[in-house]
Amino acid sequence: MYNELKTLKDIPEEDFLTGGSPTCSGCPAEMGLKMALKALGKNTIVVNSSSCMSLLCNYPYTPLKVPWLHSAIENAAATATGIVRALKILNRHSTVICYAGDGATYDIGIGSLSGMAARGDPVLYICYNNATYANTGGQWDTATPFLANTKTTPPGKYSKGNLIPPKNMIKIMGAHGIYAASASPAYPLDYMNKVRKAQAMNAPAYIEYFSPCVPGWGYKESLGVKVAKLATETCFWPLYEIENNKITINYKPTQMRPVKEFLELQDRYRHLTDYDISVIQGLVNSDWKELLGGESCKKT
Amino acid sequence: MLNEFLTGNEAVAWGAKLARTQYIPNYPITPQTEIIETLAQWQADGQLEADFCSMDSEHSVMSAAIGGSATGVRVFTATSSQGLELMHEMMYIASGLRLPIVMVNCSRGLSAPITLLCDHNDYLGLRDTGWIMINAQNNQEALDSTIMAFKISESKDVLLPSVVNMDGYVLSYTMEPTIVPSQSEVDRFLPPYRPSHAFLDTRKPMVQGVAALIPDDYTYFRKQVHKAQLNAKHVIEKTCVQWHKATGRHYGLVEKYMLEDAEIAIVTQGSISTTAKAEVQEMRKKGMKVGLLRLRVMRPLPKEEIRNTLKEMEGVAVIDKNLAPGLGGIAHSEIRDCLYDIEEQPIMSSFVMGLGGKTEEMKQFAQIVDMMKKDMIDKRGRVRFV
Amino acid sequence: MIEEHKIGYDGEKGVPVIRNMGNAIKVHTGLWRTDRPTIDYGKCIKCKLCYLYCPVTAYKWTKKGPICNYYFCKGCGICSEECPVKAISMVKEERC
Which pTM was predicted? Predict the structure, then answer.
């Protein structure tokens, strides 16, 4: 039971994130934090792991209007456990969320995240996925898509970019039996409603927010939302949620756009040939088919 | 007050319980596992009002401890060797955030190669982290130090986390007669934890864990940690006086044993001190002018006490149950530093012994004093592995 | 030239926290931009998308519609790109 936002007019006007941060111009990750805090309200504590967003609170300035704790890169989930348990001891209730990057979530922090989900601590873990270690300049991590150009998987004479397909963290977290969902800035109502749904559950939850990165992906800074929209329209980044191990797809495009439209907006795919693009299209098609199959299986 | 027969692990668990710890994140590792198992059983029987939270790694344990302490509750945890090394990154963060967490370390030698038995390398790796370091020589002191550590850490003049070290196996698994103070005694000594410097409350929001990219700001905060450590010296002394009033048991920054007219001093840390003291007694009976200085607090290093005690000596034998490869004994170089400015410096020798849990026998200390005498004749301090 | 600093113990003030929440509004990130958004209120349908999307919360929502706080606006252009009726256009910033 949660207060669903039906239209843009229902969006609360109070903001918990001000301007004045040293984030990149047009940063979708900052947008994601702003939208999440809008949906959650004042009684929220944010735990951050070392990532682009850590630089929001650069002493002595902070744009936050809610409490914020940063400890290290791999332990946002474990730190949040400590906070949630301490609040219970102090007989206070606040929503505790983690706002961490994909590097901190997929790689170095997967242990503590899995521990938090397994223990059942009521933390909403929002991973903003820009598919690289963005804060250190844009290096490869296990969320980096196939054939993408990153600083540590650059294309060259003997390389085509990243040859390791990313792992599906949403399904991994869904397998823990918790609520796991994908989200996108291009579908803000869907994202904010998922955040509210997770908040109302008072149980561990995982939301992965698709966060294009202006310097990392190489696109014009005004196109952040458009890139995210194309990602969903091409089924590169489908919107779905997993609840009690059941997959529900939230948005099925009436016509699946060719993934080339998504790729051509970004410099990180500039080195691809038509053949490479067709390989990526094949991967997107098979992943989408698998997801559709995963949904219909559970319906019977 | 109860007269009990407790292992070191049980004694320390009593310390955590009596101090009314509120949150105990934990992870098992030999030889401290019995601490958390004792606490778990109490919690299951409704005898412990704390949140007992088993975590997925020691790194997560310290992260959760930081999260809990940053919110504003009293936190206790325990670990050893490899676990302590895994959480090493978080130790700096805990002291940098000024969170008064208390941790017990059951010292155990570090891998590789693997050992389960006691030495001090893991404990002494914490010297630069900003934690207050206290080394107990017996189970009674481990219990008392755990309770005192909360008071020291939570003092407004300090606000730093503390580690109480207890030798693995030698103390942790060995039963000794221990006096357990009553809850009311401890409540009178230790008030509840109500922080105003660091808490997470949506009614009064604050940001903890900031980026201080301007070097002057960063330097300022690091200097505050240093100042807090220096303050900790008098806070520890004051707390020991209060503990003495409450229970009659006396502790300090160092322990001086038969040093009044001594010519040779043996310097030790931890449980080997009790064996060494027994041998010092025997040597005194034979008329030898030997005494013992036990370094109870490693950080803040009690430079004045060390200098004032050892400057009268002609020979100082520093015993290190640890090894810094390429350097030698760790305590030896720290103690030497304290005696640098003296005009007539004693001859100082380093004895590295007891690594990997090798047991120290009483007669070995007599042999050490003999070797020390030889060094004093040669007027040359040496490093020896015994 | 180095000089010696003497710093005393500042107690709670020496703890690295920030209590002045939202004080980043003192940071003039508006100096970053090269293009500034201008709104045609005649076209605006008051859908709130620009207000919602702005990453630096530069827009304030009023009865008239969105009002941009140029002190923070970094000129990213997302508001202009996403406006469904193209009521926002990015105009070259003029500064000497």
Answer: 0.94
